[in-house]
Amino acid sequence: MPHSLKLFQTSTFRLSALYLVLFALSVGAILAYVYWNTALLLERQTDETIRAEVQGLADQYRLRGLAGIIDTIQRRSKEDTGSVYLLTDPASQPVAGNLDKLPQQATGTMDWIEFPITTQRGGNSEQHLARAFHADLQGDYDLVVGRDVEAMRQFADIIRQTVFWALAIALCLGFGGGLLMSRNFLRRVDAITDASRNIMGGNLAGRMPVTGSGDELDRLAQALNEMLDQIGRLMAGLQEVSSNVAHDLKTPLTRVKARVESALRSGNSGEYREALEKTVEESDKLLQTFNALLSIARAEAGHSRSGLEPIDGRSVLAEVAELYEPLAEEQGGKLTVNAEVPLPLHADRQLLAQAINNLIDNALKYGAQEGAGPEITVSGAIEDDHVVIAVGDHGIGIPPEDRDHVVERFVRLDQSRSLPGNGLGLSLVAGVMKLHGGQLVLDDNHPGLLAKLILPVREAAG
Ligand SMILES: Nc1ncnc2c1ncn2[C@@H]1O[C@H](COP(=O)(O)OP(=O)(O)O)[C@@H](O)[C@H]1O
Ligand SMILES: [Mg+2]
How many angstroms separate the CA atoms of 339 and 379, rounded? Predict the structure, then answer.
Protein backbone atom coordinates (compact mmCIF):
# COMPACT_ATOMS: atom_id res chain seq x y z
CA MET A 1 0.00 0.00 0.00
CA PRO A 2 1.36 3.47 -0.81
CA HIS A 3 2.60 5.30 2.24
CA SER A 4 0.30 8.30 1.71
CA LEU A 5 -2.76 6.05 1.66
CA LYS A 6 -1.68 4.41 4.88
CA LEU A 7 -1.58 7.86 6.47
CA PHE A 8 -5.26 8.40 5.80
CA GLN A 9 -6.09 5.04 7.29
CA THR A 10 -4.53 5.67 10.68
CA SER A 11 -6.96 6.06 13.53
CA THR A 12 -5.19 9.30 14.46
CA PHE A 13 -5.96 10.78 11.08
CA ARG A 14 -9.56 9.61 11.14
CA LEU A 15 -10.05 11.00 14.61
CA SER A 16 -8.51 14.34 13.76
CA ALA A 17 -10.55 14.49 10.54
CA LEU A 18 -13.71 13.83 12.50
CA TYR A 19 -12.83 16.50 15.05
CA LEU A 20 -11.90 18.85 12.26
CA VAL A 21 -15.29 18.46 10.59
CA LEU A 22 -17.12 18.92 13.89
CA PHE A 23 -14.94 21.90 14.75
CA ALA A 24 -15.44 23.52 11.35
CA LEU A 25 -19.19 22.98 11.52
CA SER A 26 -19.54 24.53 14.95
CA VAL A 27 -17.16 27.42 14.28
CA GLY A 28 -18.88 28.03 10.95
CA ALA A 29 -22.28 28.05 12.59
CA ILE A 30 -21.16 30.48 15.29
CA LEU A 31 -19.45 32.82 12.86
CA ALA A 32 -22.43 32.76 10.48
CA TYR A 33 -24.73 33.56 13.35
CA VAL A 34 -22.51 36.47 14.42
CA TYR A 35 -22.33 37.72 10.83
CA TRP A 36 -26.04 37.66 10.16
CA ASN A 37 -26.85 39.28 13.45
CA THR A 38 -24.32 42.07 13.11
CA ALA A 39 -25.14 42.84 9.48
CA LEU A 40 -28.88 42.65 9.97
CA LEU A 41 -28.80 44.73 13.12
CA LEU A 42 -26.80 47.47 11.43
CA GLU A 43 -29.16 47.52 8.41
CA ARG A 44 -32.23 47.54 10.59
CA GLN A 45 -30.90 50.41 12.69
CA THR A 46 -30.12 52.51 9.63
CA ASP A 47 -33.50 51.79 8.14
CA GLU A 48 -35.23 52.81 11.35
CA THR A 49 -33.32 56.08 11.60
CA ILE A 50 -34.12 56.91 8.00
CA ARG A 51 -37.77 56.03 8.42
CA ALA A 52 -38.00 58.20 11.54
CA GLU A 53 -36.44 61.12 9.70
CA VAL A 54 -38.81 60.76 6.76
CA GLN A 55 -41.66 60.68 9.21
CA GLY A 56 -40.36 63.83 10.93
CA LEU A 57 -39.95 65.70 7.62
CA ALA A 58 -43.41 64.65 6.44
CA ASP A 59 -44.80 66.01 9.71
CA GLN A 60 -42.94 69.28 9.18
CA TYR A 61 -44.41 69.55 5.70
CA ARG A 62 -47.87 69.02 7.04
CA LEU A 63 -47.47 71.47 9.91
CA ARG A 64 -45.21 74.16 8.48
CA GLY A 65 -45.77 73.72 4.77
CA LEU A 66 -43.17 73.76 2.00
CA ALA A 67 -41.09 76.53 3.53
CA GLY A 68 -40.74 74.63 6.77
CA ILE A 69 -39.52 71.43 5.18
CA ILE A 70 -37.14 73.25 2.83
CA ASP A 71 -35.66 75.09 5.75
CA THR A 72 -35.06 71.91 7.74
CA ILE A 73 -33.63 70.02 4.77
CA GLN A 74 -31.24 72.81 3.94
CA ARG A 75 -30.06 73.01 7.50
CA ARG A 76 -29.49 69.30 7.75
CA SER A 77 -27.85 69.06 4.34
CA LYS A 78 -25.10 71.36 5.47
CA GLU A 79 -24.08 69.10 8.32
CA ASP A 80 -21.54 66.50 7.23
CA THR A 81 -23.31 63.44 8.67
CA GLY A 82 -23.26 61.20 5.63
CA SER A 83 -26.96 61.77 5.13
CA VAL A 84 -28.50 62.57 1.76
CA TYR A 85 -31.63 64.61 1.17
CA LEU A 86 -33.56 65.69 -1.86
CA LEU A 87 -36.89 67.40 -2.30
CA THR A 88 -38.21 67.81 -5.83
CA ASP A 89 -41.20 69.67 -7.10
CA PRO A 90 -43.93 68.18 -9.35
CA ALA A 91 -41.73 68.94 -12.35
CA SER A 92 -39.00 66.79 -10.79
CA GLN A 93 -36.79 69.87 -10.25
CA PRO A 94 -34.69 69.84 -7.04
CA VAL A 95 -35.99 72.25 -4.44
CA ALA A 96 -33.74 71.48 -1.50
CA GLY A 97 -31.13 68.93 -0.40
CA ASN A 98 -27.61 67.79 -1.21
CA LEU A 99 -28.42 65.59 -4.23
CA ASP A 100 -28.57 67.28 -7.61
CA LYS A 101 -31.19 65.02 -9.15
CA LEU A 102 -33.65 62.32 -8.30
CA PRO A 103 -32.00 58.87 -8.56
CA GLN A 104 -33.34 56.73 -11.37
CA GLN A 105 -34.82 54.14 -9.07
CA ALA A 106 -36.93 56.81 -7.37
CA THR A 107 -39.93 56.49 -9.63
CA GLY A 108 -43.45 55.53 -8.80
CA THR A 109 -44.44 54.33 -5.35
CA MET A 110 -42.83 54.85 -1.98
CA ASP A 111 -40.00 52.42 -1.47
CA TRP A 112 -36.49 51.71 -0.40
CA ILE A 113 -33.89 52.50 -3.02
CA GLU A 114 -30.14 52.15 -3.31
CA PHE A 115 -27.96 54.26 -5.57
CA PRO A 116 -24.38 55.47 -5.96
CA ILE A 117 -23.39 58.90 -4.72
CA THR A 118 -20.18 60.86 -5.03
CA THR A 119 -18.70 62.15 -1.81
CA GLN A 120 -15.69 64.31 -1.06
CA ARG A 121 -13.23 62.74 1.26
CA GLY A 122 -9.96 64.58 1.95
CA GLY A 123 -10.02 66.32 -1.42
CA ASN A 124 -10.78 63.12 -3.40
CA SER A 125 -14.18 62.27 -4.69
CA GLU A 126 -15.29 58.72 -4.00
CA GLN A 127 -18.19 56.63 -5.22
CA HIS A 128 -20.25 55.43 -2.27
CA LEU A 129 -23.44 53.48 -1.95
CA ALA A 130 -26.44 55.18 -0.41
CA ARG A 131 -29.59 53.58 0.88
CA ALA A 132 -32.61 55.82 1.01
CA PHE A 133 -36.35 55.96 1.45
CA HIS A 134 -38.31 57.55 -1.32
CA ALA A 135 -41.64 59.11 -0.31
CA ASP A 136 -44.31 60.91 -2.35
CA LEU A 137 -45.47 63.94 -0.42
CA GLN A 138 -48.81 65.67 -0.94
CA GLY A 139 -48.89 67.86 -3.99
CA ASP A 140 -46.62 65.57 -6.00
CA TYR A 141 -43.46 66.55 -4.21
CA ASP A 142 -40.86 63.78 -3.99
CA LEU A 143 -38.77 63.34 -0.85
CA VAL A 144 -35.65 61.18 -0.71
CA VAL A 145 -33.89 60.70 2.64
CA GLY A 146 -30.92 58.37 2.85
CA ARG A 147 -27.62 57.45 4.37
CA ASP A 148 -24.20 56.67 3.06
CA VAL A 149 -24.03 52.94 3.83
CA GLU A 150 -20.68 52.31 2.18
CA ALA A 151 -18.88 51.91 5.53
CA MET A 152 -21.54 49.57 6.80
CA ARG A 153 -21.41 47.40 3.70
CA GLN A 154 -17.63 47.35 3.84
CA PHE A 155 -17.80 46.31 7.46
CA ALA A 156 -20.17 43.47 6.55
CA ASP A 157 -17.80 42.49 3.75
CA ILE A 158 -14.89 42.41 6.16
CA ILE A 159 -16.84 40.23 8.55
CA ARG A 160 -17.79 37.88 5.72
CA GLN A 161 -14.22 37.63 4.53
CA THR A 162 -12.93 37.13 8.05
CA VAL A 163 -15.38 34.29 8.53
CA PHE A 164 -14.30 32.71 5.28
CA TRP A 165 -10.58 32.99 5.97
CA ALA A 166 -10.89 31.93 9.57
CA LEU A 167 -12.65 28.79 8.44
CA ALA A 168 -10.20 28.17 5.62
CA ILE A 169 -7.17 28.61 7.89
CA ALA A 170 -8.68 26.46 10.63
CA LEU A 171 -9.37 23.71 8.10
CA CYS A 172 -5.86 23.91 6.64
CA LEU A 173 -4.22 23.89 10.06
CA GLY A 174 -6.42 21.06 11.24
CA PHE A 175 -5.79 19.02 8.13
CA GLY A 176 -2.05 19.65 8.26
CA GLY A 177 -1.94 18.94 11.98
CA GLY A 178 -3.88 15.71 11.50
CA LEU A 179 -1.49 14.60 8.76
CA LEU A 180 1.54 15.49 10.84
CA MET A 181 0.22 13.68 13.89
CA SER A 182 -0.73 10.57 11.97
CA ARG A 183 2.61 10.57 10.19
CA ASN A 184 4.39 10.65 13.51
CA PHE A 185 2.10 7.96 14.88
CA LEU A 186 2.48 5.82 11.78
CA ARG A 187 6.23 6.16 11.83
CA ARG A 188 6.38 4.84 15.38
CA VAL A 189 3.92 2.04 14.73
CA ASP A 190 6.00 1.11 11.70
CA ALA A 191 9.11 1.09 13.88
CA ILE A 192 7.42 -1.29 16.32
CA THR A 193 6.18 -3.48 13.46
CA ASP A 194 9.66 -3.57 11.94
CA ALA A 195 11.18 -4.45 15.29
CA SER A 196 8.75 -7.33 15.81
CA ARG A 197 9.38 -8.65 12.27
CA ASN A 198 13.07 -8.45 12.99
CA ILE A 199 12.60 -10.44 16.21
CA MET A 200 10.39 -12.98 14.46
CA GLY A 201 13.10 -13.25 11.82
CA GLY A 202 15.40 -14.71 14.44
CA ASN A 203 17.04 -11.72 16.15
CA LEU A 204 15.75 -12.73 19.56
CA ALA A 205 17.86 -10.11 21.32
CA GLY A 206 16.05 -7.31 19.43
CA ARG A 207 13.70 -4.99 21.34
CA MET A 208 10.97 -2.47 20.53
CA PRO A 209 12.16 1.12 20.12
CA VAL A 210 11.35 3.33 23.13
CA THR A 211 11.53 7.09 22.55
CA GLY A 212 11.59 8.00 26.24
CA SER A 213 8.61 10.32 25.97
CA GLY A 214 6.59 7.99 28.22
CA ASP A 215 3.49 8.25 26.02
CA GLU A 216 1.09 5.40 25.27
CA LEU A 217 3.21 3.98 22.46
CA ASP A 218 6.26 4.07 24.70
CA ARG A 219 4.35 2.25 27.40
CA LEU A 220 3.19 -0.33 24.89
CA ALA A 221 6.76 -0.79 23.63
CA GLN A 222 8.02 -1.11 27.19
CA ALA A 223 5.39 -3.71 28.05
CA LEU A 224 6.28 -5.65 24.91
CA ASN A 225 9.97 -5.46 25.82
CA GLU A 226 9.27 -6.73 29.30
CA MET A 227 7.29 -9.57 27.76
CA LEU A 228 10.18 -10.36 25.42
CA ASP A 229 12.60 -10.31 28.36
CA GLN A 230 10.38 -12.69 30.27
CA ILE A 231 10.01 -14.99 27.26
CA GLY A 232 13.78 -14.86 26.83
CA ARG A 233 14.32 -15.83 30.45
CA LEU A 234 11.81 -18.68 30.18
CA MET A 235 13.43 -19.91 26.99
CA ALA A 236 16.87 -19.81 28.53
CA GLY A 237 15.51 -21.72 31.54
CA LEU A 238 13.90 -24.24 29.27
CA GLN A 239 17.11 -24.70 27.33
CA GLU A 240 19.06 -25.22 30.51
CA VAL A 241 16.49 -27.67 31.82
CA SER A 242 16.48 -29.71 28.64
CA SER A 243 20.23 -29.86 28.49
CA ASN A 244 20.31 -30.76 32.18
CA VAL A 245 17.69 -33.45 31.62
CA ALA A 246 19.67 -34.84 28.71
CA HIS A 247 22.85 -34.79 30.72
CA ASP A 248 21.32 -36.33 33.81
CA LEU A 249 19.61 -39.11 31.94
CA LYS A 250 22.64 -39.88 29.82
CA THR A 251 24.81 -40.89 32.78
CA PRO A 252 22.53 -43.62 34.20
CA LEU A 253 21.66 -44.88 30.71
CA THR A 254 25.35 -45.15 29.85
CA ARG A 255 25.88 -47.02 33.10
CA VAL A 256 23.05 -49.43 32.32
CA LYS A 257 24.37 -50.00 28.83
CA ALA A 258 27.91 -50.65 30.02
CA ARG A 259 26.71 -53.08 32.66
CA VAL A 260 24.46 -55.02 30.27
CA GLU A 261 27.22 -55.18 27.67
CA SER A 262 29.78 -56.48 30.10
CA ALA A 263 27.28 -59.07 31.41
CA LEU A 264 26.59 -60.19 27.84
CA ARG A 265 30.28 -60.49 27.15
CA SER A 266 30.88 -62.58 30.29
CA GLY A 267 28.20 -65.11 29.28
CA ASN A 268 27.70 -65.86 32.97
CA SER A 269 24.10 -66.26 34.10
CA GLY A 270 24.93 -64.89 37.58
CA GLU A 271 26.16 -61.65 35.98
CA TYR A 272 23.08 -61.54 33.74
CA ARG A 273 20.91 -61.61 36.80
CA GLU A 274 22.88 -58.93 38.58
CA ALA A 275 22.86 -56.71 35.50
CA LEU A 276 19.10 -57.06 35.15
CA GLU A 277 18.58 -56.25 38.82
CA LYS A 278 20.75 -53.15 38.55
CA THR A 279 18.90 -52.17 35.39
CA VAL A 280 15.58 -52.37 37.20
CA GLU A 281 17.06 -50.25 39.99
CA GLU A 282 18.35 -47.61 37.57
CA SER A 283 15.04 -47.63 35.70
CA ASP A 284 13.23 -46.96 38.94
CA LYS A 285 15.47 -43.98 39.60
CA LEU A 286 14.93 -42.72 36.07
CA LEU A 287 11.18 -43.05 36.46
CA GLN A 288 11.39 -41.14 39.74
CA THR A 289 13.29 -38.37 38.02
CA PHE A 290 10.72 -38.21 35.22
CA ASN A 291 7.85 -38.18 37.68
CA ALA A 292 9.49 -35.40 39.65
CA LEU A 293 10.04 -33.40 36.45
CA LEU A 294 6.41 -33.87 35.48
CA SER A 295 5.20 -32.85 38.94
CA ILE A 296 7.32 -29.71 38.84
CA ALA A 297 6.04 -28.83 35.39
CA ARG A 298 2.45 -29.38 36.49
CA ALA A 299 2.87 -27.37 39.68
CA GLU A 300 4.60 -24.52 37.84
CA ALA A 301 1.99 -24.40 35.12
CA GLY A 302 -0.63 -24.05 37.86
CA HIS A 303 -2.69 -26.92 36.43
CA SER A 304 -3.86 -28.19 39.76
CA ARG A 305 -5.03 -24.83 41.12
CA SER A 306 -8.51 -26.28 40.92
CA GLY A 307 -7.33 -28.96 43.37
CA LEU A 308 -6.79 -26.37 46.10
CA GLU A 309 -9.06 -26.89 49.10
CA PRO A 310 -9.35 -25.48 52.60
CA ILE A 311 -7.10 -27.52 54.88
CA ASP A 312 -5.39 -27.21 58.25
CA GLY A 313 -1.63 -27.27 57.70
CA ARG A 314 -1.22 -28.77 61.17
CA SER A 315 -2.73 -32.10 60.10
CA VAL A 316 -0.30 -32.30 57.17
CA LEU A 317 2.62 -31.64 59.52
CA ALA A 318 1.38 -34.37 61.88
CA GLU A 319 1.15 -36.93 59.07
CA VAL A 320 4.58 -36.13 57.73
CA ALA A 321 6.11 -36.25 61.21
CA GLU A 322 4.61 -39.65 61.84
CA LEU A 323 6.26 -40.88 58.65
CA TYR A 324 9.70 -39.44 59.31
CA GLU A 325 10.13 -39.68 63.10
CA PRO A 326 11.14 -43.37 62.99
CA LEU A 327 13.56 -42.66 60.13
CA ALA A 328 15.26 -39.92 62.07
CA GLU A 329 15.56 -42.11 65.13
CA GLU A 330 16.95 -44.93 63.01
CA GLN A 331 19.75 -42.59 62.00
CA GLY A 332 20.40 -41.76 65.64
CA GLY A 333 18.73 -38.35 65.37
CA LYS A 334 15.49 -36.73 66.35
CA LEU A 335 12.55 -35.01 64.65
CA THR A 336 10.36 -32.65 66.66
CA VAL A 337 7.18 -31.00 65.46
CA ASN A 338 6.10 -27.65 66.82
CA ALA A 339 2.71 -26.38 65.73
CA GLU A 340 0.49 -24.88 68.41
CA VAL A 341 -2.07 -22.98 66.41
CA PRO A 342 -4.30 -24.10 63.53
CA LEU A 343 -2.76 -23.26 60.14
CA PRO A 344 -5.68 -22.41 57.86
CA LEU A 345 -4.57 -22.84 54.24
CA HIS A 346 -6.05 -23.05 50.82
CA ALA A 347 -3.86 -25.77 49.42
CA ASP A 348 -3.42 -29.03 47.58
CA ARG A 349 -2.93 -31.45 50.46
CA GLN A 350 -0.86 -33.97 48.55
CA LEU A 351 1.48 -31.46 46.93
CA LEU A 352 2.01 -29.62 50.21
CA ALA A 353 2.84 -32.92 51.93
CA GLN A 354 5.23 -33.74 49.08
CA ALA A 355 6.97 -30.37 49.52
CA ILE A 356 7.42 -30.87 53.27
CA ASN A 357 8.59 -34.44 52.62
CA ASN A 358 11.26 -33.14 50.28
CA LEU A 359 12.51 -30.65 52.88
CA ILE A 360 12.65 -33.27 55.64
CA ASP A 361 14.27 -35.70 53.24
CA ASN A 362 17.03 -33.13 52.62
CA ALA A 363 17.37 -32.50 56.36
CA LEU A 364 17.81 -36.21 56.94
CA LYS A 365 20.40 -36.48 54.18
CA TYR A 366 22.38 -33.29 54.66
CA GLY A 367 21.54 -32.34 58.25
CA ALA A 368 23.49 -34.95 60.12
CA GLN A 369 26.05 -33.48 62.51
CA GLU A 370 29.50 -34.96 62.99
CA GLY A 371 29.18 -38.12 64.99
CA ALA A 372 25.47 -37.66 65.71
CA GLY A 373 22.19 -38.15 63.87
CA PRO A 374 20.20 -35.30 62.35
CA GLU A 375 18.33 -33.00 64.73
CA ILE A 376 15.33 -31.80 62.77
CA THR A 377 12.72 -29.30 63.91
CA VAL A 378 9.50 -28.88 61.95
CA SER A 379 7.43 -25.88 62.98
CA GLY A 380 4.21 -24.26 61.89
CA ALA A 381 3.19 -20.74 62.91
CA ILE A 382 1.29 -17.71 61.77
CA GLU A 383 3.29 -14.54 61.16
CA ASP A 384 1.39 -11.45 60.03
CA ASP A 385 -1.03 -12.85 57.48
CA HIS A 386 1.17 -15.75 56.46
CA VAL A 387 1.43 -19.36 57.47
CA VAL A 388 5.11 -20.19 57.92
CA ILE A 389 6.11 -23.84 57.88
CA ALA A 390 9.82 -24.26 58.62
CA VAL A 391 12.11 -27.27 58.51
CA GLY A 392 15.47 -26.75 60.27
CA ASP A 393 18.54 -28.92 60.72
CA HIS A 394 22.05 -28.42 62.06
CA GLY A 395 24.06 -29.81 59.18
CA ILE A 396 26.41 -28.06 56.77
CA GLY A 397 23.75 -25.72 55.46
CA ILE A 398 23.80 -23.93 52.12
CA PRO A 399 26.14 -20.92 51.63
CA PRO A 400 24.12 -17.70 51.02
CA GLU A 401 25.46 -17.30 47.47
CA ASP A 402 24.11 -20.74 46.50
CA ARG A 403 20.63 -20.35 47.95
CA ASP A 404 19.00 -19.04 44.76
CA HIS A 405 20.84 -21.49 42.60
CA VAL A 406 20.00 -24.76 44.42
CA VAL A 407 16.30 -24.26 43.71
CA GLU A 408 16.92 -24.79 39.99
CA ARG A 409 16.33 -28.19 38.46
CA PHE A 410 19.16 -30.75 38.77
CA VAL A 411 21.36 -28.44 40.81
CA ARG A 412 23.25 -30.29 43.56
CA LEU A 413 26.08 -28.75 45.51
CA ASP A 414 29.47 -30.42 45.34
CA GLN A 415 29.40 -31.06 49.10
CA SER A 416 26.40 -33.37 48.68
CA ARG A 417 27.15 -35.26 45.51
CA SER A 418 28.18 -38.35 47.45
CA LEU A 419 24.62 -38.75 48.71
CA PRO A 420 21.75 -40.06 46.56
CA GLY A 421 19.45 -37.59 44.89
CA ASN A 422 18.54 -36.03 41.57
CA GLY A 423 18.59 -32.32 42.40
CA LEU A 424 14.86 -31.96 41.78
CA GLY A 425 13.58 -31.89 45.37
CA LEU A 426 13.83 -28.14 46.00
CA SER A 427 12.63 -27.38 42.47
CA LEU A 428 9.41 -29.21 43.23
CA VAL A 429 9.08 -27.36 46.54
CA ALA A 430 9.48 -24.05 44.71
CA GLY A 431 6.96 -25.13 42.06
CA VAL A 432 4.44 -26.10 44.71
CA MET A 433 4.93 -22.74 46.44
CA LYS A 434 4.39 -20.93 43.14
CA LEU A 435 1.15 -22.85 42.65
CA HIS A 436 -0.04 -21.76 46.10
CA GLY A 437 1.02 -18.16 45.74
CA GLY A 438 3.66 -18.77 48.41
CA GLN A 439 7.42 -18.68 48.63
CA LEU A 440 10.32 -20.94 49.55
CA VAL A 441 12.94 -19.11 51.61
CA LEU A 442 16.27 -20.72 52.51
CA ASP A 443 17.86 -19.31 55.66
CA ASP A 444 20.74 -19.90 57.99
CA ASN A 445 19.87 -22.06 61.05
CA HIS A 446 23.19 -21.31 62.82
CA PRO A 447 24.41 -23.84 61.91
CA GLY A 448 22.47 -25.73 59.29
CA LEU A 449 19.65 -24.90 56.97
CA LEU A 450 16.27 -23.41 57.82
CA ALA A 451 13.91 -23.93 54.89
CA LYS A 452 10.71 -21.88 55.22
CA LEU A 453 7.47 -22.26 53.31
CA ILE A 454 5.63 -18.96 53.45
CA LEU A 455 2.00 -19.29 52.41
CA PRO A 456 -0.96 -16.90 52.45
CA VAL A 457 -3.40 -17.56 55.31
CA ARG A 458 -6.83 -18.71 54.13
CA GLU A 459 -9.38 -15.94 54.57
CA ALA A 460 -12.03 -16.72 57.18
CA ALA A 461 -14.80 -16.73 54.57
CA GLY A 462 -12.84 -18.78 51.99
N1 LIG B 1 19.13 -29.27 54.45
C2 LIG B 1 20.15 -29.06 53.60
N3 LIG B 1 21.42 -28.86 54.08
C4 LIG B 1 22.44 -28.68 53.23
N5 LIG B 1 22.32 -28.64 51.88
C6 LIG B 1 21.09 -28.83 51.36
C7 LIG B 1 19.95 -29.04 52.19
N8 LIG B 1 18.88 -29.20 51.41
C9 LIG B 1 19.32 -29.08 50.13
N10 LIG B 1 20.64 -28.87 50.10
C11 LIG B 1 21.48 -28.67 48.89
O12 LIG B 1 20.64 -28.34 47.82
C13 LIG B 1 20.76 -29.27 46.76
C14 LIG B 1 19.44 -29.46 46.07
O15 LIG B 1 18.50 -30.10 46.89
P16 LIG B 1 17.39 -30.97 46.24
O17 LIG B 1 16.81 -30.14 45.18
O18 LIG B 1 16.49 -31.47 47.30
O19 LIG B 1 18.20 -32.13 45.55
P20 LIG B 1 18.74 -33.50 46.13
O21 LIG B 1 18.22 -33.67 47.52
O22 LIG B 1 18.28 -34.53 45.21
O23 LIG B 1 20.23 -33.34 46.10
C24 LIG B 1 21.27 -30.49 47.42
O25 LIG B 1 21.98 -31.28 46.53
C26 LIG B 1 22.16 -29.94 48.50
O27 LIG B 1 23.42 -29.62 47.96
MG1 LIG C 1 16.29 -33.47 48.03
Answer: 5
